[in-house]
Design brief:
Oligomer: single chain
Strand content: 15-25%
CATH superfamily of the largest domain: Thiamin diphosphate (ThDP)-binding fold, Pyr/PP domains
Number of helices: 14
CATH topology of the largest domain: Rossmann fold
Number of strands: 12
Shape: globular
Order of helices and strands: HHEHHEHEHHEHEHEEEHEEHEHEHH
Number of domains: 2
CATH architecture of the largest domain: 3-Layer(aba) Sandwich
Helix content: 40-55%
Length: 335
Amino acid sequence: MTQLLSQDSWQYRSLNAVTPGLSYLSNALIDLAKEGHPVVAGSADLQYSNGLNLFAKQYPERYVQFGISEQNMVSAAAGMATTGLMPFVATFASFLGLLCCEQIRMDVAYTKLPVRLIGHHTGISLGFYGTSHHATEDISTMRAIAGLTVVSPADGEQLASAIKASVHWPEPIYFRIGRGREPAVYTANTAFEFGKALVHSEGSDLNIIACGMAVSGALEAAERLRKQGLSVGVIDMHTIKPLDRDAVLRAASLSKTLMTVEEHNVLGGLGAAVAEVLADEGLGVRLVRHGIQDEYSLIAPPTTLYAHYQLDGAGIAEVARSQLERNNKKQGSIA
């Protein structure tokens, strides 16, 4: 199997198992428990990878270690929800979003139970663990399930805000989160509203719509492009379902080119969701869908993979600049 190697390859093998940024998950659940909410949590033998060991230590009576039994965990969470509890269950996104699809569809979404599904280490963030552990199809799978909300926070602070906001959200939720090493984008207690995108800036040349770890890269890319004289906006589309259609239409009214960025297959993910809005409204706006181009991702440290797939700031800026240059050439040839 093809590998992309770098100088820090062996160091990465030991670092990847530690995800300190995911302590935001446990801390948010601890706060909810202290406030009196009927929060319970569970993991499939990955409590040290997703940070739920902190919650388990604080509230052992509210935590269940399911072992390597992800499908059973989801079904059990549905059962807990029928008793009035609010379960949060977590495992690798590659297992939760794909292996547990049937249980999520029938036990959780079909019955409209308030289960919170935490798929962590999404996209290509598991690097050397291999393509089998990369989650580049979970957005398309989860957003196709009726009644299931899909959220992809940009960093730990936004995750914490989303977790706390979820106590007032009636539908089941799939949280798509990274490996806990994403660059900070937000400060503590940043406002979060399901289905309402956060507009960082607006541009007349290009507007970038991103989710998850791609938000920080999009912000860096926009800054690079502004220094080149371009007007570039950035939208954090943290809720992929329900999508903020108004934010998409607003961006389309400001620039003739939109660009989606996601750590996911370009088929069926954020780019597809935005394309559906544009098609529904009959808008003649050019859309660039940037992400994994319908392939099985390679094996390497995450930072190497992000650079290879141009999902870091420099890469996103290069893809955007090249597309804008092609647009200008086409417009010149038509004129």
